[in-house]
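Materials and Methods. Structural model of Response regulator. The 113-residue sequence of Response regulator from Roseibium salinum was retrieved and submitted for structure prediction as follows.
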Amino acid sequence: MNIHIIEDDEAVADALAVALEGLEHRPVTYPDGETFLARAELASEDWVIIDLGLPGISGVDVIRKIRHLPDPPRILAITGKPQARLLTHLKALPGLKILRKPLSIEMITKAMN
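The predicted structure was written out as tokens:
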């Protein structure tokens, strides 16, 4: 199982990747949605951890594209956005798991179980 991390903050992406490697996962990082959509090889057992506030194509738009795949991977969204904006995302993407930054590896692993 691969864990695809789409996060424009390099420090956050790296910290997530290192923590997940320590838990025997195979993380792959992408700096933006465009790179992810162009390069990712997805399987239904994979996870995608995606920042909602990406530059260029938004995390919300990437999630919509993922959800339309024949066998989509599981998705976990992360955000540092204020509560009012978060509520807008929740309405646009029902059933989406969203975690607020700052993150901990415990938050991530709990959400993925």
